[in-house]
Amino acid sequence: MNYKIGSLNDVKKYIVFFGYEDNSANLAQYDDSLSIEKLNKFIELKEWKWKKEASASYIDVETGQEVMLCGLGKKDKLTKVILRQAMAKLTAAIAKVKAEDIYVVIPEFEDKELKVAYIEALIDGLESVEYDFIKYKEKKKDDKEDEKKDKNVNLLNWDLCEHFLNECVYVAKAKSITKNLVNEPANVMTPQKLADTTKALGEEFGFKVDVYDENYIQEKKMESYWSVAMGSDLMPRLIVCKYMGNPDNKEDIIALVGKGLTYDSGGYAIKTASGMATMKSDMGGSAAVIGAITAIARMKLKVNVVCVVAACENMISGRAYRNGDIIGSMAGKHIEVLNTDAEGRLTLIDAVTYAVREMKATKVVDIATLTGAALVALGSTRTAVVSNNDEFFAELEDASEQANEKIWRLPHDKEYKDLLKSDIADLKNIGGRYAGTITAGLFIGEFVEEKPWLHLDIAGTSWNDKKGSTGHGAKLLYHLVKNTEK
Fold this sequence. Notes:
about 475 residues; alpha/beta; 6-stranded mixed beta sheet; about 35% helix; elongated
């Protein structure tokens, strides 16, 4: 999709109108572009009332011009939820349009927040419906998809700054980048490939990327991370991204730490065959932070951000770690491993320690497809959150509203931390059968060294069994970081 601020004089083929049930739509101003008289007759014939989520199509047989009418319901009842529902329906319809140039008339809004939500939902929806991951499907000679071209979306009645349009597009594209990273199969998206792809994105969008090998990981005594990684023939890669958009304030650095398990067999606590089938998605957290930093850099936000990804595979071999092992960590704490399938938290704790000690992060956000318990508790609707800081969580709530990515904070009482106590080490890597999402988060929280911290468990929100990656997390992280801009 290509987007630009359009002019009525440009309209040639396909135009979309919105109207309110009790206020209709002001079509008179479009006389130069359309046969409004014919359109009004069509509206009258259909007894069109611009009701909520209603839509209709009109084609002028003489000119071949197509018009789509979309209802928003009563103006005084309009909410962001209604807008987003209308956009979902509209963008699905636009995806089927053959015209390369589409003109969308932005309706009148008395509330600027509604206008902002409308445009964000429109662009996000258009990018989502146009997205597909079919690169591994055989292309036949008569496949018309080979001739598919990007649609040009022209926005009419635009009265916001162009900077905002760019932001909407860049954030929507970041979500697509996240999806692409996750949807690649594990035999392609290896730790090295994830590192190489991230470096290429950094060169394209303007952030620094350093990649470190297994020797560096061991030199830094990242034993917890290395224990998970050493069972695979494919060596781990520590990926560190850096964007310093506010160099005058180096004391304020946000770390985005993403789980980067490019494949997870479960190790010796092996998963079932069906459980392993989608484990290419276990690096959804890393994909989200990489997607987010592309938008942050493209928008040149005045913030300082580092991203740390401990990329590796969790496999079985003679070198693999075992249930019952005791392993160290970069922070110096020792962990009793009771379940090798609780591996993501083991990679994350060393990544978090690295972010705090080596990158001097002052706030930490980790994001991970961490626990099936999050899916059991909240389904695929909300991301589970554990935090040690009320103010930081309040900032995440604001970002959640802006991104339309729902969250739910879980408790962090001392009684939950006690479940992680080990008789023979500093911590166990699981807290038992109950409260699994909470104890997993609090395990990571033991390594943030009192920094304000958010843990996001996207196990339920990052994947759709029919569509693959949802791209969840990239928009949320972008808005969280943006709201700290100074």
